[in-house]
C-alpha cells in the first residue's frame, strides 16, 4: 500500500483517502503512517478470536483497550457428569471456525465442545445450576451474527433496543 500511495503521489495524484487494515492488524496500519482511515469492523463486537490478540504490553486486547460486546445468552440444561454441564448453544447458535466461545466473566468454567444444538461446559467444581444463564463470547462474530434474526441491545441489565439483522442468512 505504501508503494501504491507513493506511486500515485509521484504521478501528481494526491489520494484524499487511504483506507484499509482491520481489527487484527490495526496496530501495524496505524503505525505505518500510510492510512488515514482504518477498516476495523469486528472491534465493535470483540469476539473471542480477536480478543486473544495481545496489545503492546502483552495483554489480551479484550481485557484492556476494548471490551467484549457480543454475547450469546445460553442456559444450563443438564449435567452429563458432575463436572460437565450441557447448555443450549451449539453450532446452530454460533460459528466456531475460529475457535470455541468462552464463558464471559467466568474463569471457573470452560466451554469445551459442541454439537448442532448443545454445548458442553467443563465445570470442575460442579457450580453451574440447571437454568443458570451464561453469556458466551462467540469465537467468530461475523458468521455468528449471520445465524440470528436480531441483536438485542442490553444496557445495565435491561433490554434497551432490538435491531433486526436484515441480511441474516444472505451468504451469497
TrEMBL record:
Domain of life of the organism encoding this protein: Bacteria
One MF annotation (Gene Ontology) recorded for this entry: D-serine ammonia-lyase activity
InterPro entries in alphabetical order: D-amino_acid_metab_enzyme (IPR051466), D-ser_dehydrat-like_dom (IPR026956), D-ser_dehydrat-like_sf (IPR042208), PLP-binding_barrel (IPR029066)
Biological process, per Gene Ontology: D-serine catabolic process
Gene3D superfamilies noted in UniProt: Alanine racemase, D-serine dehydratase-like domain
D-serine dehydratase-like domain: residues covered: 69-155
PANTHER family listed in its UniProt record: D-SERINE DEHYDRATASE (PTHR28004:SF2), ZGC:162816-RELATED (PTHR28004)
Record-given protein name: Putative serine dehydratase-like protein
Originating species: Chelatococcus asaccharovorans
Amino acid at each position: 500500500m505504501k508503494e501504491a500511495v507513493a506511486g500515485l503521489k509521484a504521478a501528481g495524484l494526491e489520494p484524499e483517502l487511504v483506507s484499509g487494515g482491520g481489527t487484527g492488524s490495526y496496530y501495524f496500519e496505524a503505525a505505518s503512517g500510510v492510512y488515514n482511515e482504518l477498516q476495523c469492523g469486528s472491534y465493535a463486537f470483540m469476539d473471542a478470536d480477536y480478543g486473544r490478540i495481545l496489545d503492546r504490553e502483552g495483554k489480551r486486547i479484550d481485557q484492556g483497550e476494548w471490551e467484549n460486546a457480543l454475547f450469546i445468552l445460553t442456559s444450563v440444561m443438564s449435567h452429563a457428569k458432575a463436572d460437565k454441564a450441557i447448555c443450549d448453544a451449539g453450532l446452530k447458535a454460533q460459528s466456531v471456525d475460529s475457535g470455541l466461545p468462552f464463558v464471559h466473566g467466568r474463569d471457573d468454567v470452560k466451554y469445551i465442545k459442541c454439537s448442532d444444538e448443545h454445548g458442553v461446559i467443563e465445570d470442575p467444581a460442579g457450580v453451574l445450576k440447571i437454568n443458570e444463564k451464561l453469556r458466551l463470547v462467540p469465537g467468530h462474530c461475523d458468521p455468528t451474527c449471520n445465524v440470528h434474526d436480531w441483536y438485542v441491545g442490553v444496557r445495565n441489565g435491561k433490554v434497551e433496543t432490538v435491531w433486526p439483522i436484515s441480511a441474516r442468512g444472505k451468504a451469497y
